[in-house]
Write a structure and sequence with these properties.
This protein is of the alpha/beta class. The chain has helices spanning about 20-30, 40-50, 65-75, 95-100, 115-220, 225-230, 235-265, 280-295, 320-345, 380-385, 405-415, and strands at about 10-15, 35-40, 55-60, 85-90, 105-110, 275, 295, 300, 305-310, 315, 355-360, 365-375, 415-425, 425-435. It starts with 9 loop residues before the first strand and ends with a strand. The structure holds adenosine-5'-triphosphate (ATP) and magnesium ion (MG). Magnesium ion binds near residues 328, 331, 332, 399 and 403.
Amino acid sequence: MSKYNIAKATILIVDDNQNNLKVLCEAIADSGWEILVASDGESAIEQAEYACPDLILLDVMMPGIDGFDTCQRLKTNLITREIPIIFMTALSDIIDKVKGLSIGGVDYVTKPFHTEEVLARINVHLQLRFLNKQLEEQKNDLEKRVAARTRELSEALYELQQSQLHLIQSEKMSMLGQLVASVAHEINNPVGFITGNLSHLSDYIYKLINHLQIYQRNYTEPILEITQDAKKISLNDLIKEIPDIFSSMEAGIDRISNISSSLRNFSRSDTSTKVEFDIHQGIESTLIILKPRLKLNKRHLNIEVIKQYGNLPLVNCYPGQLNQVFMNLLSNAIDALEELIESGKHETNYAFLKIHIVTKVENDNYVSISISDNGLGMDAKVAERVFDQFFTTKPIGKGTGLGLSISRQIVEKHNGVISCVSNLGKGTEFTVKIPIH
Ligand SMILES: Nc1ncnc2c1ncn2[C@@H]1O[C@H](COP(=O)(O)OP(=O)(O)OP(=O)(O)O)[C@@H](O)[C@H]1O
Ligand SMILES: [Mg+2]
């Protein structure tokens, strides 16, 4: 059953004529409605505000403010404007009837009153009034439900985007990580093999040389074939060169095993807890992976990487993830320099393609890593959006617009900040600050 029950309605009757009031009250006394009365406009407004009746019966001619003014004031008042007003006019006064309807009255009854008619009209308007109220409530309820559902949906969408982002991120990193790890692993075995054998080989060769020298000392006049061959192969020079050859081979092998351990370092799978990590090692291993991209082969150009490393302590972090940030910043810088060349602008600057990496400790509790390039830079509109998910200015297939938004998430996960300063035509600088502890 509806909470709007016509039998329990409240009606305000406004008339300065006591006789009229009496007649009306008697006429509707049996209906069960609660009846309020007022004898002038001012007190009618006051009561309407206070009691919020469901309907007002309003006389036109009254001392003080008349029925029309009262109606207009009720209609401009937020509390009372929805209350239906039925005017009470003299039978002959057609002008009053029209005016009453035009300023917001819903109906009129004429004096002298016909009880049946008055009751019928009141009933109709109470019903309309209650239906309107119900409709209004249903509309509000519906609006609330739509708003709540919209909120739920947009939250779900946001979560979906986030998890999608994480999926892409972990997929991208685990693919790169796996590739790098397996390359490092493949390199490792042969390197170990060579390192192990190299020391034996040098040992054997020195023994052979020693043996040869014993011959030379004891057979001072060898046969012609031996002296000829010794001359042909420049035996003495050859023996002198051997230590150099070995040390350069050892250096080469050292370098390969360094690269291999850098690669393994880059791809180290993240533990669920943070570990102490050497940021420079992370940057170096990232640079090793990006090395092929620093040579812009098409134009025989190299990007020069200038490092200004400060004295950094170990940082408590997720190393694999920070490497990912360096990877994104450095690849963006390389992209920007490539674009500079493709654009044909700054033709004379070809020899000066540079990436600066500066690290330092700030306020004793932050490490700051800034990576800048002297590429095309960005205008303010682009710079504002670089950290937005899926924002990219690169052609389809080249950029997904995720690098920086992922990087920002990672940096924020470390309670750090990442910022960007860019000058159109001059270059761009990204700075990452990570708390040391
Ligand atoms: N060093 C930079 N110089 C100029 N513009 C840059 C630089 N770094 C980022 N941007 C701009 O910011 C955009 C967003 O970079 P972001 O790394 O998030 O995505 P992306 O490089 O386009 O794609 P990917 O997901 O493959 O990294 C780039 O498309 C580019 O317009
Ligand atoms: Mg990128």
